[in-house]
Amino acid sequence: MHSPVMNDLHEFRAPQHMTTDELGDNLARLVWESFSDFLSRDDVETPLPRLAAWKDDDPDTQSAEEALIFFMWAHTRGTQLAFLGRAPDEIIRKGLDALHRAVFEDMVAHGTPNAQLPIFEQRVSARYAEYHQAASESDGRLGEAVSRHLSGDPKECREMAFAITERAIAVANPLRDFLEEVELVD
User: Fold this and answer.
1) Is residue 5 classed exposed, middle or buried when 0-12, 13-18 and 19+ CB atoms within 10 A define those classes?
2) Is the Cβ–Cβ distance between 165 and 140 less than 8 Å?
């Protein structure tokens, strides 16, 4: 027999309201979880192939940073889709700014020199523009764009493009579904 408390534990409910800072913190946590799963290969639902350039099954710094950018973009995209037409662009932007601020602060807290952040932010901005354009054309184009930056090897890019597309969908759709019931407040 389940007690009322146990029944409540089994019924997860999305919050009705979320501030832009809460959204940013929650998204940052999800980005890091996705990134950690990618590095540890714990996520078997949509695994990405290992790249030839990775030593001892570990990504090089460039590939790891590109993966982080991809997961930031995928969570950004899911959030934008969820709030499209439901929240003012300015409030959505504040929530996404909070996401990026939290990720950058985490990077510094874990050893990234503060002086490197502006260069990384420029790469993030360039990739976002490229990924948004590719996604507007097709899911396949998105997979190709991300794969090119993760690998650079045309053979690996073809193999990886489908897995990237699946990963983007696996991140963005559930996030969008979750956030569709949430009111974003400033």
Assistant:
1) exposed
2) yes
Neighbouring C-beta atoms of residue 120, cutoff 10 Å: 16
> For the chain, which residues make up each domain, given as ranges?
17-44+56-185
Of 59, 72, 91, 88, nearest in space to 28 by CA: 72
Q: What is the DSSP letter of 114?
A: G
Model confidence pLDDT, tens digit, residues 49-76? 555 444 454 555 677 888 899 999 999 9
CA distance 83 to 180: 7
pLDDT digits (tens, 9 = 90+) for 79-91: 999 999 999 999 9
Residue with token string 């099954």 = 57
Q: Are 135 and 164 in contact (CB under 8 A)?
A: no
pLDDT band at 98 (very low <50, low <70, confident <90, very high): very high
- Confirm if 185 and 19 have CB atoms less than 8 A apart: yes
- Residue 75: how many CB atoms within 10 A of its CB? 22
